[in-house]
Amino acid sequence: MKYTLAFAAMTLVHATAGAQPAPAYHAGAAHGAPVVLANKVTIRPDGIRAVTVIASDYAFVAPDTIPAGMTEIRLQNRGTEMHHVWLIRMDAGKTLSALFASMKAGPPLPAWARQVGGPNTPGPGGESVATLRLLAGRYAMICVIPSPDGKEHVMNGMAKEIIVTPASSNTSNVNIRVSSTMTLLDYAFQFSQPLAAGRQTIRVKNAAEQSHEVVLARLQPGKTPADVLAWMEKMEGPPPAAPIGGTTPIARGEENIITVDLTPGDYALICFMPDAKDGKPHFMHGMVTQITVAGKS
To answer: Which residue in 255, 238, 258 sits closest to 246, CA to CA?
Structure first.
């Protein structure tokens, strides 16, 4: 496929190897102890629906249907390569075959393909989480991260069609407390509050004209985002950063809420989305930055 998102973050794989995935919520678990239930929709204690998606090389295990509303997507990577969940709502009666045909022409996607995001890549054995509002309709769940040979995972069959059904219960009034809001602009990341060490819940909203994503990576001591981009050119030596999540591409007006555990140190934020005008990844337009997370006082 010609619609490559240039997810060179896949090359950071060794930095996260061996991480242990955390389990998903299950309603009724004793004393709030979570239980992993792959391929099922469960309910969090706060009423939000929760779905665990298992990614392998190269397939998803996920429910075929999900009720509409606020939904936590918890991605557990059990493959040997990087994987993410990119959800695209296919309006106007379109299906996966129509989406694939449109992707062959390159970006941007047609108006009927609404990019709503999902959890971005952790390393093998890792986990990332994104909560988003799903409207009823037909969705594509795909992974477009390329393998070392340059072939995108979706071309190896890493795609699944999901039907989001009208919900019998309403989750629109659920209030999720966030630590900070990250606004995606053309071409910058803007925070309402600095991030702190510990478990952080970040609202990511796209206020830009174009679709954007965020790959959040923990930098090794003394390294910078420039080191990450330079390292990706040759991939020699140890990787200068380890990806810990983020959100896959979201269209203007869409929001995802991501949950990450941050340790004190420096982090890179990078958007690899190809530009709608010249096809260059957005980091080449300046959508790459470094932030510092301070320790708790």
So the answer is: 258
Whichever domain contains 244, its CATH number is 2.60.40.420
Determine the Cα–Cα distance for residues 204 and 247; give it in Å rounded to an integer: 8
Inside any domain, residue 32 = yes
Instruction: Give the chain's end-to-end CA distance (angstroms, integer).
Output: 49
Give the β-pairing of 180-185 and 198-206.
parallel
pLDDT 10s digits, 132-143:
999 999 999 999
For 92, 135, 164, the CA distances from 57, given in Å and listed in that order, are: 31, 29, 25
pTM passes above 0.85: yes
- Token pair listed for 108: 């941007």
Strand, coil or helix: 66: strand
- Please report whether residue 138 resides in a domain: yes
For residue 57, give every residue at least 6 positions away whose Cβ sits within 8 Å of its Cβ, in sequence order, or none: 79, 80, 81, 83, 153, 156
Structure tokens at 210: 């174009």
